[in-house]
Every structure is written in C-alpha cells, then in structure tokens.
C-alpha cells in the first residue's frame, strides 16, 4: 500500500503522523511511504531522516493526497485538506466529529473511509489511541492552569503549591478517567489541594487506594459540583463520552459563583467542551476571560509538547497502521473489532452511532458496508 504523511497545518501543530522509525517498519513490510517535505521538521525529524528510513519526499500536500491510498495524520483534516480527499481513500487520524458538523459533511462528501483514533478500542474496554494524548493533556492541563493563575495572565495570583505558611491552590478535577487521573497526579505532585469528582464509585475507590488519600474524592452530582467550584482556584474539565459531544456540566450561572481570577481548563474541548462558556482557542491565543474567570480551551493541547506527544501517539498507532496497510481497510476492520469501532465515516455514511445521533444523521451499521 502507498501510505501518505502530510504536514499538519492546524495552528501551532508540530506533531506528525509517523516518525522515521514508523516509516522503516512500513517499508520493511513491503509498503511505500510518501512524506510531505518538512512534515516532522518542527520536532527534529528532517527530510533526510525520513529518506534514510525509506520514505519518498514530496513538495506539496496535494501530492500526498493525490497519490496515497491511506493518509495518516494527527489532527482532523482542515477544510482545504478535506477538499483533497478522494473516494475510497483511507484517512486515519483524530476526527472528533460529534461537535464538528462541517468536517463531518466534508468527509461524507469526499466518499473517503475515515477511521478515528479516538474511538478505536481494545480488549479491556479502553481507547488505546486516545489514551497517550489524554495522558499528555491531563499533565499539561496543570501546567497551563498554573500559568493562567499568574496575575499577568488574568489569574488570581495564586501559586499552585503554596509555600510554608501560605495554603496551596484548590484544584478541582471533573472526571476520573485518563485525563483526570493524570491531571490530579500532577497537581498533587505540586502540593496543591486536589479533589476529583466522578460518577463511578469504583473509580473513586481506586483513586483513593492508589493515592493513599492524598487526592480527595467526591461523587459527581450537581450539588457537589456547584459547591466544589465555588471554592476552586483551578478547575480541570476532563469529561469524556467516547465519540459523542461532551456534556455541559458547568453552566454559565455556576460560573458566576466562582472567585474572580479562578481558572477553567477544558480538556474536553475537542468534543465540544464540558463548560457552557467554553470556546476553542489556539496555542497562539490560548485564553479568554468571561465574568472574571480565565478560560483555557486549546483544542490541540498536546501539540505544545509536540515531540513527546508524537512519540507517545505513534507508539500506539503504528501497529494499526501496519495492519490497515497490510490487509486493506475492509479485511482489517472485518478481522479486528477494535479497528471497526474506529470507523466513523464510510462511503458517504456515518457509521458511528454517537456521531450520527449528535449531528442528526442516519446511523448505518458498518458491517453492512464492508
């Protein structure tokens, strides 16, 4: 198979869909790989590194899209990239379609085969291609929140961990999944006062056991959430419903009860955000203020640490890329139910139920199209 790796064009996005070592693996399996020039230059993978691994370098994204049978990316295709997709071409990347009707429409019109990293599953009920970036984003959310609390950033001027004689910041994490656990671990490591809310008692018990009480746990209901954010200096939104739009757990009305200069970091923004006042931002302009509350809602947060993120992501995606390239998308999804779970768009149909429900499309069982 001919696999194409374009350069990412989203704002301040330096990650790349495949490293030179990944190219070498594909070449060793008998495949061809074309890479757009400078696709990995932002994180130290120059064109020569890709050439040594066996890739062919092309000068423009249009060449990648016109020649490749499968496109491997990191972020969802931007509008100009969607226009270059071809009928029957496989697109393997993060998509986050439920809150993005325009992208969904473009992909349907392209007649491509779009497999989303974020809905590929594993034998343990996890999301193995989302988990690495969730780990990164969870840890980064605390860094971003700590900086946003600084006075010149619009925050209240509180140091996350405090100092002797001065109490630390109060950090509230909504959601006890991969993002939430990693955020709470980082915040606790900086000596903040951390509370994590979740609806699963088993999750809360595990957190309590794993952290030996260093992180407080609280069952997530409206009253507990309302009371928690009133006392919070930093709130991390870490809510995920796989493939679906994130629920709006923190309303604009609740925002008014928070202390001035407090900070919200919405890690769920890729799926529409879990705060009613959330709007996607970029690394170039990451924050805005509503009612005195600083909002950090960068939609590609792991891109800030692009090298670490690329290595973590491609470690997870490469086996699936090799499988898709070796078998073709039909055989691969027929034989691997976890890849089948990643199939969101297929031949002009929405094949992921949550996307179809949230955007008002008819859901089509992918098995009927394979």
Which key phrases capture this entry?
alpha/beta, Rossmann fold, 2 domains, 7-stranded mixed β-sheet, 36% helix
Q: How is the topology of this model organized?
A:
Layout: E1 2-5, H1 20-28, E2 32-36, H2 47-52, E3 56-58, H3 61-67, E4 70-72, H4 79-82, E5 90-93, H5 101-110, E6 113-116, H6 131-148, E7 170-174, H7 178-189, E8 193-198, H8 201-211, E9 216-219, H9 222-230, E10 234-237, H10 252-255, E11 263-266, E12 287-290, E13 293-296, H11 306-335, H12 337-342, E14 343-346, E15 349-350, H13 353-359
Parallel strand pairs: 1-2, 1-4, 2-3, 4-5, 5-6, 7-8, 7-10, 8-9, 10-11, 11-13
Antiparallel strand pairs: 6-14, 12-13, 14-15
Helix pairs in contact: 6-7
Mean pLDDT over the full residue set: 97
> Unreliable stretches, pLDDT < 50, 5 or more residues?
none
By CATH, the architecture of the largest domain is named 3-Layer(aba) Sandwich
Find the CATH superfamily of the largest domain.
NAD(P)-binding Rossmann-like Domain
CATH fold-type name of the largest domain? Rossmann fold
Helix content: 25-40%
The string of secondary-structure elements, in order, is EHEHEHEHEHEHEHEHEHEHEEEHHEEH
Strand order of the largest sheet: 3-2-1-4-5-6-14-15
Q: What is the CA–CA distance across the termini?
A: 19 Å
**DSSP strand count:** 15
**Rg computed from alpha carbons, rounded to a whole number of angstroms:** 21 Å
Percent of residues in β-strands: 15-25%
Tell the overall outline: globular
Domain module tally? 2
